[in-house]
Structure formats: C-alpha cells, structure tokens
Amino acid sequence: MKLTIDNNDGRGPCDYTESVDAARAPQVVRHLNSAAELRFSLVALRPDFIVPANGARVMLGRSNGSDVFTGYITRPPDFEYLGWGEQGPMYRYNVIAQSDEFLLNRKTIPSRPPFEVRGAGDALRQLTEEMLPGVFDTSGMQDVDTVNYFPCDCQKKWSDHAATLALLARASYRALSGKLSFAALGTTIHALNETDSSFTPTALKILRNDRLVNDVTTFGLLEPSAYCRDYFVGDGLSLKFYLSQTPFTRASKVLIDEEYASLDPTRWTAVDPASAISVSGGKLLVSGGTGSDGKTSVQFIEQLELGGGNTLQHGVVAFSGASDGVLGGLYASAISVPGCLAGFRILPSGADSRIQALIGGVLNGPVLITQKSHLYALTTRFYAAEVYRSRQTFHSSLHPGGAGRGGDRISADVRVVLEVHDIDPANPGSQVAPSTVLYDGVIANAPGFVTYALVNAANLRLNISFTRILKAVDAEVRSAVPDAAYVTRLVGSLSEGAECHISTEPALQFYPQSVPAANEQIVVSYRGASRSMARVINSASISEKKGGNDDGIRGIVRAIATPSARTSPDCENAALALLDESKCPAWSGEYECWSDFLPGQADDVFPGDTLSVSVPSQGASFNAILRDVEIQIADLDGEHSRYTLTFADDATQSPAFAFDSRYVSTALDTTPVDSVSVGTNYLPDLTGATVTQVSSTNINIDCGITPAAGHGIEVRSTDYGWGQSNDRNLVGRFTARAFSVPRLARVQTYYLRQYDSSSPAKYSRYSAALHVDFPL
Question: How far apart are CA 678 and CA 612, in angstroms?
Fold first, then answer.
C-alpha cells in the first residue's frame, strides 16, 4: 500500500509510506452513515521530512489503484518524543484524518428552503452542489426513496444531513476518492459461509437475542385531528370570539423572503433562452420572452405543498409596457397556461395590460386594467383542511428504500384567493386601501404538490421588487354580512395587512379596523390538535405464544423521532415497520479475518453492505447489515490487513428509525388494531360537514355526504364514547345527508362521525366538530 500526503505547499502529493511507524499499524475505521477515520503514526527517517500540515490531503491506496481511505488531516499531529538520534531529537507524529466529507463539514449549511418531494439522494446531491459546486463526483448517488419534507439546519454539518437522509430512505452514504455514493442499504451482499475454505469458526462471534414483538405502541407529534367549524355572529362591537378547541397550527414560517440582490440558485431556476430575465437594483426585471407559452420562466426550486394555510406574495409589480404571460402560477405538471391551477393572467390591453385570475387554465372573475404609473401587489392565499398532503414513509428490511410503508397522497379541496392591491404612488391613501379580489373559490380534489413559477413570460415587460412564501396560520376565516356572499378574511399579523389572528386562548381576534358588522356571520374552519399515536398488534403471534399464565403479548412502546410520525396513520405505519422486524431471535455479531479472506472473496467491504451468514453448526442463517468496519494495516508492503466486521440485523438495531426518550404515559389508553386490518378499519372523515341554519331551538346540519345503505351519521355532544353500545352522550343517529339537532343553549357543540353496518361498526377516524355561538 502507498500513503501519500499533499500538504498544500505546492509540492503535490508526497509519498510518506517509508515514514509509517511499523510499531503502530495504521487503522481505518468506517462507521455506517458517518465519516470514516484514518489513524497513523510517522517517524522522520530523512532530513527532508516534512511534518504533515493540518488540512493536508491524505490518500491510502493499494497497488491496483483502489483506495482504502481518502480524506484530510483534521488537526495538527501530536508530537511524541522518542529520544535522541543521529540527526537530533526523534519524534513520532500521530496523525488523525477524516474522510472526504471533511471539506463539506467545515462549511456552513446554506440558508435554503426545505426540500419537498425530492429523492433522498437527489436532495443530498443538490445540497452538495450548493455548498461545493463541482468538487465531488455525485454521479453515483441514487435517489433510493422520496422524502416529502426535509429542512436544512445551519447548526448541523453536512454529514449530519447526509445521515438523516440516509435514515429516512434506509440507505447508506460514503465519501471516497472524491466521489459520493448514496444507495439503498444492503445493495452489495457478502456471503459468510462455514463451508468456505477460508472461514474461521473461532473468528466469528454471534449473539442471539429474544426480540420477539407482537404489540407495538407508537407516539408521534401533535397531529391535526377534528375538523372544526365554529360559527359566530357579529354585533358591530365585538372583536374577540372564543373558539371551541385549540387549533392545530404550525408556527408561521417564511420559506423565502427574496429581495433580489441576485437570482439565487438555491431558490430559483430560470429558463431564459431569449435573455429576457435579469436582476438590477433589487428588482427582478422581465423584458420580453420567446413569444411562446412556458418557454421563459422563473421557477421556485422546490415543490409547494397545498396543505394547511399558505400565503404567496408574488411581489409589487410595475408594468413598463403591454404584457403577455402568467405571474404567480401554480402548476400541477409542466408550466403552461392551460395547465395553470391558479395564477394571475396578464394580457395586453392597448399600451397597457389587464390582470385576471387564471383558474384551471381558464380566465375567471373581474378584470383589472393596469396603469404605468401604478404598482400592483399580487397575492395568492390558499387553505386546505388537510395540513399534510402525503403520509410519511417508514422502512424495514421487508420494506426497503423505494418500497416503504406509507407515502400515499391525501386528497383535499383547496380554497384559493387571488387578490391585487392597486397602489398609486401619488395617492398615499391607496397604500391602505382594500385589495381587489379577483378570485375566491374552491378547487376540488386539488393536487397535493405543485410547481410554483413566479414568471411564465410569453412577452412580459415589468419588474418585481420582492417575493415571499409564508406557511401561514392553518385556519380559514370567512364572513358574510346579511344578503351578501361569504368572503375570506385574512388571518395573520397586522403588519401583513391581515384582518384578524388566532390567539392562544384560543380565540379569533379581529383588528379594530376590521370589526365584524352587526349580524355578520363568521365561520372559522380549522383542525383540532391531539397527540398522534397508534397501537398495532399481531394477533396471530399473540395466540401462538399464549399458554398457561402467559397471555402471549410481547409489547414495546416507542416515541418516533425520525422519520417524523406526524399523524396517527403515520404511527400505524411506523408500528407495522417495527413489527416487520419482530424476529426471534435477533442477530448481531463480529467477524475477524485477513483482507485475503474477506467474505465472498471481496476486495473490500463497507458499512451498509449485507453480510449473509450461513453457519448451520451454530444454528445461524440470517442477513445482517454491516455497521462498522475496522481495518488494521498490518503489512503495508504486502498489502495485508486485519478486518473486524461488526454487524446486526434490523431487529437488533433498526437503521431506519431514531427514537425519542421522552416520557409517555397514555400507551394503554390506545385501542389496539390488528396488523392485518391497518388501513381498512376507518371510514372517510366528514370533512365537509357544515351548519346550514340556526334557530333558537334547532341547528340544521349538512354532513357533506349521502350515507350509503346501512351507513349512518352518529352525533354526540362530546368527542368520545363512539360505538353502538354507548348512548350516554348520544344526540342521535341519522341516515340522511341533512338533518336537524336540538339547540339547548347559546353555545352548542356537536361532534359527528360516519359509521357502517359491520360488527363491530367502523367509524371515521376523526370527528367533525360543529360549534355554534349565536344569540338565542
């Protein structure tokens, strides 16, 4: 083997092989989804010896050209005095080097939007190129599986992000020879068979543990639960209206706040064959286009999730001439006018332009004619009752990367509001004048994720001063004065021009300038909040183990940290993935061998490879993942090394989960679900249930669906006790879509779930909560 070090002194890579201290064999330690480390010692044998520098490039390779280790010295070498030699004092220099990702780990993670609906490998590749463009060969990185949402944390290192992405996809990453690899765990298989002539029985240590599990309780994050609609009526004075539940809402988050110092490639992708797009003076300038739809565009680099509440402030636009294109467009697939789900259509109007809502590729609503001296603030707001539009994905050895449990899309209708604020710089009052609403409607069964193109220019002539994307409050507020249609009220901070906000009491609080009028009806739609949890059992395994005083249950409770279990269905899928590994026994162990006799006659082995163990004499036949590989370079000249392979299967230590040690106390309160019925034990939720009329004695309800034969709607005064055998809080059971329930007080709340005729009856997972606070 040859050890070369480049001290970055202009000499290039220098051969240090002769200086390696034979008394201390170099050691390479490789860990699964972590940086590899090389430790070696040098002794100065020649007068021209140069002490390796901190940050020097180190390469340890075989004569056949393959590298055992490549990386960088991470700190100045330690000096160890050996005595006096012919040339003066003698020292041993103890050196530690870290693999190639050291270059990335010493840089700050860029401030960028979260990755959304990206392949795990693609996200890591993108992050790498943003940090060190062109430095690493990333062609060997595979996507493995899709990651729905992955935020970057500037407090963590690149390798931390790589390890988390690998965990999310049940993959492994490696940095070697200037190349990055990212692949599913176990892609490379090494056979360890006792019938092989090179097998050494005494070098194998295996451990069998009883890890049988047939009852798994999992806990996740706070989840959006009940579908709440609270109804109020204004009196012309009141600003505060108390909500029936604490809303589930994510903290308001600004995904981007672009001031256009440049067109930041970590945020935007520009397609500009006509050179019509530029940045100058803090503004995005568009001066023309190709004349064709979709050929000139500025596109947000990530997909946008149409879930919960979101606000897209496309910016303040100044038109310099008649224009043709789309601003602030949301697209389900390719960027085109017919494919635009929602956006602002700009068309020529003489020497000026006109702005109109574009919904589903069709012009919709009123037209606003632009003036060259005016500025136009364009804003899109959307709200979906479903906060998350996809399930989390969980992996196991039976469901590896690309075939995980979960990951399915969640259907939802989305309310979209497009508005334009016409600002006349010569009229200060226009700054606070109300915006013109071009569209306020619901897009049925909207896609979960869309492409956001700020600019789709056939021939646009304008400039845009800023762009902001905000994850807004996950609540929808609408109101209607008598004899008028409902309008959407903006929820947020006063500085953003909002009309109201949701306080922690919880309450809906209007700002003084937006006080609801007398008899103005107000509807607040939001989701309640509860802890996500699930308990999944393998009843067949329980029955098999049952006997005598043994009830057969082998249970565990886990709080899921990564991947995030955001909802109870996520917790169910996580529990199923853990049950996949409910083996008895679970295997782990260690094997030592020389490099000449690696399992399967391999040239080298790495963490993340599969070790297929077949040792019938010890009752062992299993597949495990290599977790650590330690290499002692015993003979540099002869290239003989001593390998220590540490391995474990998923039942011993899952490479696809990280758990939280927080205290949980409600595990036994969770109703168990058999693993064979997960995904089929709930009916659809009543997401469209509404109150249609309120009188002093009755409340009329439309549950949003027509119950099928044998199905019905169960209504209760509290959100528990669901089932045919419990009537203590029962208001009634109804088989029609519309029905009436009694009103007994000024403030009344009813909970609804759908049920069927099976035995026991299946119900909706989450309730629809209808709350009325009207004067009698």
Answer: 32
Sign of CA dihedral 176, 182, 185, 187: negative
- Residue 550 is given by DSSP the state B
Report, in angstroms and rounded to the nearest whole number, the Rg of the chain calculated over CA atoms.
32
**H helices, E strands: number in the chain:** 5, 55
Tens-digit pLDDT profile for residues 374-394: 999 999 999 999 999 999 999
Q: What are the structure tokens assigned to 639, written together?
A: 């290239």
Q: 57-61 and 2-6: which strand pairing?
A: antiparallel
Contacts of 348 (CB under 8 A, 6+ apart): 322, 323, 324, 354
CA-CA distance, 384 to 388, in Å (whole number)? 9
d(CA 631, CA 31): 12
- Asked whether the beta carbons of 324 and 461 are under 8 A apart, the reply is no
8 A C-beta contact, residue 31 and residue 607: yes
Residue 605 host element (H or E): none
The span from the CA of 401 to the CA of 140, in Å, is 16
Q: Using CA atoms, how far apart are residues 561 and 570, in angstroms rounded to an integer?
A: 12
Using 50, 70 and 90 to split pLDDT, how confident is the model at 671?
A: confident
Cα separation, 531 vs 560, in Å, equals: 12
Q: Could you give the CA distance from residue 16 to residue 93 in angstroms, rounded to a whole number? A: 12
For residues 18 and 4, the answer to whether their CB atoms sit within 8 Å is: no
Tokens of 114: 């979260």
Q: Where are the beta strands (DSSP E) in 23-151?
A: 27-31, 37-43, 57-61, 67-73, 78-85, 88-99, 115-119, 146-150
Q: How far apart are CA 578 and CA 561, in angstroms?
A: 14
Tokens representing 492 are 């947020």
Residues 264-303: tens digit of each pLDDT: 999 999 999 999 999 999 999 999 999 999 999 999 999 9
CA–CA separation, 519 and 510 (whole Å)? 15
Q: Which of 584, 485, 579, 582 is nearest to 534 (CA)?
A: 579
Lowest mean per-residue pLDDT among 254-258, 296-300, 366-370: 254-258
For residue range 203-219, list pLDDT tens digits in order.
Answer: 999 999 988 999 999 99
| One-character DSSP codes across 39-55 | EEEEE--STT--PPPTT
- d(CA 404, CA 392) in angstroms, rounded, equals 9
pLDDT of 667 over the 60 cut = no
Q: Which CATH class is domain 682-773?
A: mainly beta
Say whether 304 sits in a helix, a strand or coil: strand
CATH architecture of 2-99: Roll (2.30)
Q: What is the pLDDT of residues 177-199, one digit of tens each?
A: 999 999 999 999 999 999 999 99
Q: Is the separation of the CB atoms in 721 and 729 below 8 Å? A: yes
Average pLDDT over residues 651-665: 86
Over pLDDT 90: what percentage of the chain?
A: 88
Instruction: Identify the CATH number of the domain defined by range 252-396+406-472.
Output: 2.60.120.200
Angle at 35 between CA 31 and CA 38, to 5 degrees: 85
666: confidence class by pLDDT, cuts 50, 70, 90: low
Q: How far apart are CA 776 and CA 771, in angstroms?
A: 14
